[in-house]
Amino acid sequence: WACRTGNTHRGNTLTETHTQLIVFTPKSLLRHPDARSSFDGMLPGTHFQRLIPDDGPAAQRPDAVKRLIFCTGKVYYELTKERQKRGLEETVAISRMEQLSPFPFDQVKAEFERFPNADLVWCQEEHKNQGYYDYVKPRIRTTINKAKNNTHLVELRRFLDTAFDLEAFIHKFSNY
């Protein structure tokens, strides 16, 4: 079983109302060695993962990560192969979205906050006007804006504290 296909089957099985499941997958992943689920991932107590976070070397040192790539589908395997070829395992994190609807806002936010110094990138094989880009872009922006709202409040507090600190500017204008 390919990870994505197995994950999708488990997700459909665990819902209260079972719907018809149509899965379009490329044959290239059918026997791909990295596209397999372990039996441990199918035991009782396991659950469907809407987003699979990076758990490689980048996850060990999140502050060193310079780029966080979100993707879905088979492009993940091409990205990980190229990342390894270029020796960027410690500075580039790749997270897979296994379910786009409903969008995993909470998990995208957690990944964004986990890698504070990283640029965020959505990667897909299709052209920009095809694929999931137009669906994902506003949702990722919403998630980032909510995550950065806390940063804005910290900066606002610092600004206000400085503005009302009567000692803050005494030495700056003493020559006038």
UniProtKB/TrEMBL annotation:
Q: Which residues form a coiled coil?
A: none
Where does it live in the cell?
Mitochondrion; Nucleus
EC number(s) recorded for this UniProt protein: 1.2.4.2
Keyword Transcription regulation tagged: no
Domain of life from the UniProt record: Eukaryota
Enumerate the InterPro entries for this protein.
Answer: 2oxoglutarate_DH_E1, KGD_C_sf, ODO-1/KGD_C
Catalytic activity field: N(6)-[(R)-lipoyl]-L-lysyl-[protein] + 2-oxoglutarate + H(+) = N(6)-[(R)-S(8)-succinyldihydrolipoyl]-L-lysyl-[protein] + CO2
- From its record, what is one biological process in GO terms? tricarboxylic acid cycle
Q: Which Pfam families match?
A: OxoGdeHyase_C (PF16870)
Q: Which GO terms describe its cellular component?
A: mitochondrion; nucleus; oxoglutarate dehydrogenase complex
A Gene Ontology molecular function term of the record: thiamine pyrophosphate binding
Q: Which UniProt keywords apply?
A: Glycolysis, Magnesium, Metal-binding, Mitochondrion, Nucleus, Oxidoreductase, Thiamine pyrophosphate
Q: Where is the 2-oxoglutarate dehydrogenase E1 component/KDG C-terminal domain?
A: 36-152
Q: What is its main location?
A: mitochondrion
Cofactor field: thiamine diphosphate; Mg(2+)
Q: Which family does it belong to?
A: Belongs to the alpha-ketoglutarate dehydrogenase family.
**PANTHER family for this protein:** 2-OXOGLUTARATE DEHYDROGENASE, 2-OXOGLUTARATE DEHYDROGENASE COMPLEX COMPONENT E1
Protein name, entry field:
oxoglutarate dehydrogenase (succinyl-transferring)
Q: Which organism is this protein's natural source?
A: Xiphophorus couchianus (Monterrey platyfish)
